[in-house]
## 1
Amino acid sequence: MEEMHKKFRQSQDNGFTVFEDGVFTVLFNENKNQSRMLNLPVNFVYVHSSDGRFLIDLGLGNFPHKMFKRKSRTPFYTHPQHLLGKGIRPDSIDGIILSHMHIDHIGGYGNHDSEQFIPFYPNVPCFVQKKEWDFRAEKYDKAEQAYKNTMDGLQKNIRLIDGNREIANGIDVVLTGGHTPGHQIIFFSTNKRKVCYAGDIISTENQAVDGRALPHDYDRTTSKKVRDALIDQARSQNWIFIYSHAAHIKAGRLESTEKNE
Ligand SMILES: [Zn+2]
């Protein structure tokens, strides 16, 4: 944790936008006897630095998945439509940074509704931890065509990272593991304030306050350790968190509610 702070450059200033890629219902298995349905908003982030324009995660898009059902009240926008809605040209994207490779973070890579899968960013480098790629490439369900299409599309553009690295001026990734074996989190700054996209280590505003675990962590102990350390640092240094699955507060700072009385 010490390391990630030192590496950070306070001087670089980047703007960012958080997009909501719809709300999905998903079935979580708590254990083999117990499961529950959750409504899960899926968010992704656009950030620009002096080195270019980046997307952080890709949402679920229209990926057809038996575990996920898009709620009808949310209209479907393709990735390019999301960006164009904010005046961002999809062909201006220079890179994609993936926190991890769960389907709700990579499903939006292309259009699954067309006769042939069409990747939206066919020539844009995708930065992912080598550990994550190796694990997922081994494990994903190859019988599921949509998954295979996504992985094949990504494979052509994948840039494997081994550990912590600066991706572009002022945009850093830090390997955390925990939620998945090669989960990484992303740091940059805006208005001289440090911003942390903690992926699914801290995915909602509630999780940033109570630090509770999600039921689908690969390694809960590591996840909890990283989450607690991040929350501590965010509190003392006034970071902004961006939340991958928050319904209401998509980005915010943790403020102390203690009173000096
Ligand atoms: Zn997720």
## 2
Amino acid sequence: MYRKLNNLAAGPTMTHTRSLPYDIDSAPARFAWAVTGSGHGLVESLEIAATLLPHVDLFLSRAAQEVLPLYQIDLAQLKQRFRVFRDNSASAVPVGMLYDETRYHTVVVAPATSNTVAKCAFGISDTLPTNMFAQAGKLGIPGIVFACDTQPVVVTKSPLDWVELRPRNIELDNVARLRQIDHCHVVCSLDELRAAIDARIADIRMPAPEAESTCTSA
Ligand SMILES: Cc1cc2nc3c(=O)[nH]c(=O)nc-3n(C[C@H](O)[C@H](O)[C@H](O)COP(=O)(O)O)c2cc1C
């Protein structure tokens, strides 16, 4: 069972000023977790992200920043536990951290709106999450995207009530297209997201294969 989101601000590290359990400059490589403006899977995705602490940092789209409080998630409280990067530059300045290979080994986009899925599928990068995804791909850093609109009927929680959505063919087609993008693993449920992250963790912990010997005895 995942930790409840309300506990994100609880625990011994909670203070009224930001106090992180690690120093970003000396911490080992970790997950870069991009959050978009999707209400669907928002709380649950952040619960999964919290299980990775302190080995995860958050990267919010502008829409994510607006949607968070609508689901009773307080940005100030998130910042007490996570290092949070907001989308407040035209060139997605935090993306530069991906060039330092010791910082991030994986980029997760969860939850991903149909807007972000479409942009990622067509190589558009004009938000912090889409820039993180695109630049990671160009660097060969694996990406995991939790696409929300993947079924003919999606039942999701709006800020007021549960609603039933019927993704159009364009949304389903974009998910299919995203699956073709290099270094990208698309997941369609929270269980698949957790499994993909566990698999990635297992991958990272795997000892590097021994270099093949090319020597022949003379
Ligand atoms: C309360 C609320 C919930 C939303 N939930 C979703 C959602 O589940 N899926 C989705 O694709 N868009 C959703 N949206 C719309 C996106 O936030 C909007 O398309 C936004 O432009 C996405 O920007 P981003 O992809 O850069 O985060 C929601 C908007 C609001 C206000």
